[in-house]
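Tokens for chain A. Residues wanted.
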């Protein structure tokens, strides 16, 4: 049996008043989440892989994890967490590395800092800090021996348990929670795993994982999937729908992940586990109809910061003025 590095290093729940409760696994009830979503969904946990070295952003990532880089006034990882919470998820599992202690520190309570902010009258800022982890639970696990995305997700198995779960890649930001909420509903109604896809020009499909549809696109943007193909040539591509960084997987995905053998690049590929599921059980794709930002490169991160800044009511007008006055 392949060994995955599984160790929960932070697990906490804050109550509605922002006071720390016991540091242990607890049941969560009475959350302020959308009732129309919660009533029909099963997915409660979201896994966010964040153990990477961020080599494209060196030397900054030598000291600061890329997931904590600010986009406007929020760390990138918090934007992804907020997406999950908006879809009714209440347990966030972050797969981190021992070389990134700042990830742990971000989620840990800091009473001294809160006291200092309150003493200076910065109540609003203090409240924002208290909201990190309030009404939802966070677990941080270590990926001890990185072997690819499939391996990273496998490290979250003990924290998630034997239930459906979402996977959100932090390099991709969605404009809302609507696609993830729809994926949760499709998983609950079909009993199978679900991936998010976007349609790209046919000549671009060779750079991505592509779905092989088993049927037509439904009116609500759902496609049955019979297989997935990694980076096909355009001549051989079964569709123009490429995988994006959102997945909702049924509990039996854990067995497929555990059975993974090294694939492309000698790594344990999550796509291989998804293919195994698609070949034997219901599997669907949801076409993402909202804007998607790729922050995996410095240029993508910069453009995402600008785009989200333009959507921020406090930053929008000054940012527009700055951009309008740039020298041509």
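Reply:
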């Amino acid at each position: 049996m392949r060994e995955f590095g599984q160790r929960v290093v932070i697990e906490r729940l804050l109550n509605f008043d922002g006071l720390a409760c016991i540091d242990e696994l607890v049941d969560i009830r009475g959350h302020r989440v959308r009732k129309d979503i919660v009533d029909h969904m099963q997915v409660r946990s979201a896994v966010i892989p964040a153990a990477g070295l961020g080599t494209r952003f060196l030397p900054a990532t030598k000291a600061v994890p890329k997931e904590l880089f600010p986009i406007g006034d929020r760390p990138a990882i918090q934007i992804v967490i907020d997406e999950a919470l908006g879809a009714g998820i209440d347990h966030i599992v972050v797969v981190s590395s021992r070389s990134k202690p700042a990830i742990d520190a971000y989620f840990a309570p800091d009473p001294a800092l809160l006291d200092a902010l309150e003493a200076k009258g910065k109540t609003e800022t203090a409240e924002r800090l208290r909201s990190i982890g309030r009404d939802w639970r966070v677990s941080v696990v270590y990926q001890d021996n990185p072997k690819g995305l499939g391996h990273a997700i496998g490290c979250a198995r003990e924290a998630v348990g034997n239930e459906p779960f979402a996977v959100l890649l932090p390099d991709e930001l969605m404009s809302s929670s609507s696609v993830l909420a729809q994926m949760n509903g499709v998983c609950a109604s079909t009993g199978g795993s679900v991936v998010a896809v976007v349609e790209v020009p046919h000549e671009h499909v060779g750079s991505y994982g592509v779905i092989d549809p088993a049927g037509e696109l439904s009116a609500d943007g759902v496609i049955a999937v019979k297989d997935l193909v990694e980076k096909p040539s355009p001549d051989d591509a079964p569709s123009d729908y490429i995988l994006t960084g959102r997945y909702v997987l049924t509990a039996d995905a854990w067995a497929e992940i555990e059975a993974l053998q090294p694939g492309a690049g000698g790594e344990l590929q999550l796509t291989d586990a998804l293919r195994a599921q698609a070949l034997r059980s219901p599997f669907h794709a949801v076409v993402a109809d909202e804007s998607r930002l790729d922050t995996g490169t410095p240029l993508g991160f910069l453009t995402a910061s600008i785009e989200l800044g333009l959507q921020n009511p406090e930053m929008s007008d000054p940012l527009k003025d700055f951009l309008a006055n740039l020298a041509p």
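The first strand starts at residue 8 and ends at 13. DSSP finds twelve helices and 14 strands in the chain.
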